[in-house]
Amino acid sequence: MTIKLGIAPIGWTNDxxxxxxxxxxxxxxxxxMSLAGFTGTEVGSKFPRDIDxxxxxxxxxNMSIASAWFSSFLLSxxxxxxxxxxxxxxxxxxxLGSKVIVVSEQGNSxxxxxxxxxxxxxxxxxxxxxxxxxxxxxxxxxxxxxxGMEIVYHHHMGTGIQTTEEIEYLMDNTDPDKVNLLxxxxxxVFSGEDPLxxxxxxxxxxxxxxxxxxxxxxxxxxxxxxxxxxxxxxxxTFTVPGDGMIDFAPIWEKIKDSGxxxxxxxxxxxxxxxxxxxxxxxxxxxxxxxxxxx
Length: 294
Hints:
The protein is globular, with a radius of gyration of 18 Å. It has a seven-stranded parallel β-sheet. A two-stranded parallel ribbon has the order 2-3. It has helices at 26-35, 51-59, 79-95, 127-145, 164-172, 185-191, 195-202, 216-225, 229-235, 248-258, 277-292; strands at residues 3-7, 40-42, 64-67, 69-72, 100-105, 150-154, 179-184, 206-211, 213-214, 238-239, 262-266. The longest helix has 19 residues, at 127-145. With 294 residues, the protein is α/β, with parallel strands linked by helices. It is 42% helix and 16% strand. This is Inosose dehydratase. InterPro entries: IolE (IPR023952), IolE/MocC (IPR030823), IolE/XylAMocC-like (IPR050312), Xyl_isomerase-like_sf (IPR036237), Xyl_isomerase-like_TIM-brl (IPR013022). Belongs to the IolE/MocC family. Pathway: Polyol metabolism; myo-inositol degradation into acetyl-CoA; acetyl-CoA from myo-inositol: step 2/7.
């Protein structure tokens, strides 16, 4: 079992709301990640796109790229547009040594709509939409295989693949050789799902993991006040492992027993003016070590 620990740059600068952490630089973020004890990260909006420049900045800090988010628009753009964007994304990650590509369908997502209530307006796919998404994801999987890579689907709040039933439908109707799953603790708990059930059922197809925690009072306020996803983030619903309601010990036991081989990436979108990203990174690194021994 080879597990590497990373932390996402979204705690330093939020790509969906660039005003959160706008003054934090790429160099500051990756330096603090390394100082906190992490060896990898995912690509953020402030990361240089020049491969050589990015590789050098990472290597001198003993850091590498685990993956990067790809926004798919199978429901709102042509396949040709999606294919072109995916290939560029794939080739960029391949040049950086990544093995997996994080994919999320954003064609009718509400996660970026700051005034749209998260739970009241959650999209639900029609049969025709499911067919488009499933066929498109399998094509992405084939394209990833051209570079010896895999796609991992990111179930996500505010999208058509969020709940247990939706994850099960996706997994049941896609080719396991082409479509794998990203396991995100925070999104599962926020949605009201059981992460232990999901991990147990799909452990053979889970190729990437996000460790994210939830502040229960803020989650409950999001539901009661009909907050949007982005306003929920600004209010502090998400946090790092060890600072919220999730007990990661039983989750870790599932991961360990499954022989998982890959990255565990801490991802907690917070306002860095309220939650100092370096301090939170150090605290969660200590917590993860205590729980997992990693």
